[in-house]
Fold these 2 entries.
Entry 1:
Amino acid sequence: MRYVEPVFRPPSEANSYLLAVTDGCSHNKCTYCAMYITKRFSVRPQEQVFEDIAMASELMPETRRVFLLDGDAMTISAAKLMPILERLRASFPNLQRVSSYVNAISVNNKTDEELVALRELGLTLGYIGLETGDAIVNDRIVKGATIDEQVTAVQRAQAAGIKMSVMTLLGMGGRDRTREHAVATGEVLSRMDPRYISCLCVTPVPGTPLHEQVESGEFEMITPEETLDELELLLEHTLVSGAVFRSNHASNYLPLGGRLPADRERLIATVQAARRGETPLKPEYLRGL
Ligand code: SF4
């Protein structure tokens, strides 16, 4: 219950108890990310985490979902994460799901047995920011993990039974890599085969390296209409076995949602209709960022 502001969580965790097990992000170098630039990364002492769980279990005993803060709770060793998950199970009898943002390197640093043990203790969902499948763009944005490392992390987590939600960013390749970015992102999503996919639109936030690159002209943003071209290409190249697809974040110009592969044609047709002007795009002033 003790937080270091600002605190972030995925939209789908709006009703979750947010438990701070770390503060900040252990990487904290992605050029587009402003989430934790004001925070120094640290792992919370276990006693403090246990005290927070005890407080929350008194105030919110019906808690069903818990989201572990901040940017990469999986950076904590399995030996330290497991007692936290055990304490959550013991404290919340109705607990159905524990989730967190995850970093590919942190997942890959765990053994298959550790990933299975974490899932058995309730960690059943991880959110990972792929952003791009294009290796050149991935290097430019200082993601801190290669594309292959990210694919491996998602595949290994899912093999252990941890469902993965993969986030991507339309426009992350700028104008010079727009096509490569969209096609490669769809192809990498296909290799990952996650259960959830979300497509947001890149937004340069003041204070980030990306914002400076935009200001200096080093990075050229694509237009709202061009995000539709990327979205269509990405959908065409995303061949997954079964995933919920969402492109309805506040940053998106065209809110979309459905299941892949079942709704692919409908989703693509909706994008094409918007490009023909049949569906108005969200005006800038309505985009909540
Ligand atoms: S790993 Fe995630 S939280 Fe950390 S800097 Fe990159 S995008 Fe931000």
Entry 2:
Amino acid sequence: MSKTIFGPVNSRRFGKSLGVDLSPGTKQCNFDCLYCELEPAKTLASQSSVVPLKSLVSDIQEALESHKNIDVLTITANGEPTLYPYLDELIEEINKFKGNTKTLILSNGSTIADPVVQKALLKFDSVKLSLDCATAKCFKKLDRPESSIDLEQIKEGMLAFKKIYSGNLLIEILFVKDLNDNEQEVAKLNEFLLQLQPTRVDIGTIDRPPAYKISPVSYEKLHQLSFGFDSSLHIAIATKAPTSLEKFDYTKEEILNTLARRPLTQSDIEALFSKEAQKHFQELLSCGKIVKQDSSGVLFYKVA
Ligand code: SF4
């Protein structure tokens, strides 16, 4: 198979996903994040090595023909996929033959203020953008962007894009120990996300060896940070809970109080609730005191 295509992999959130790499040969990114899983590399404002559109389209078409029933085609890159100069043409072509397969792009969010990029992203079913920091100091330290990139412009671009986009806008925040895992940064992120109103916010931490010497936050810390966000936001913890995690014997009242502070996902419930608490939870669900809501493939439970 072509090196631009990887997978398919089964994901709990998106189903059977086939990946497309828009920079298969080398890392081409306008960030140099401390947590990147790729080698550290000089930041670039544009791609210098470009895969021809024609070959990319035929690779994708072939892959969709040989792998039946792909739920989602995930556009990504060794670096930043929106730096691909023919992104708009590419998604136009994909939309002609993708059938029932959904499209998703994973971007670091850096180019979202660019109308040309917005025009292309509007054609995806789901757009996932990273936003690790809401303040410039934190952003520069953690994501190490190319010198021309401005965080305020990114935030304005996200707000402008949200106004015109009718698909699923997902935000991803990656927390790193002693960098963005503090209350002040979370408060600023929360303030911005309340304005943005994304479909869902995935929070996680480093789970593969990073490019630089930094440390992940614990699952418990992620859980604690999740309560720093407003209960109207759908916050999903994307990092897997350790099996050693202590489980809690929540009473029905405690379950309702917790859900009022933050809607929980199925994974949260499995990770945090004791058997007894899960029984209480099921009873509250059956009598309608708790309701469930799907947020782009993730089920959230909240107080009715
Ligand atoms: S945006 Fe992604 S590819 Fe680019 S440096 Fe950060 S983690 Fe690596």
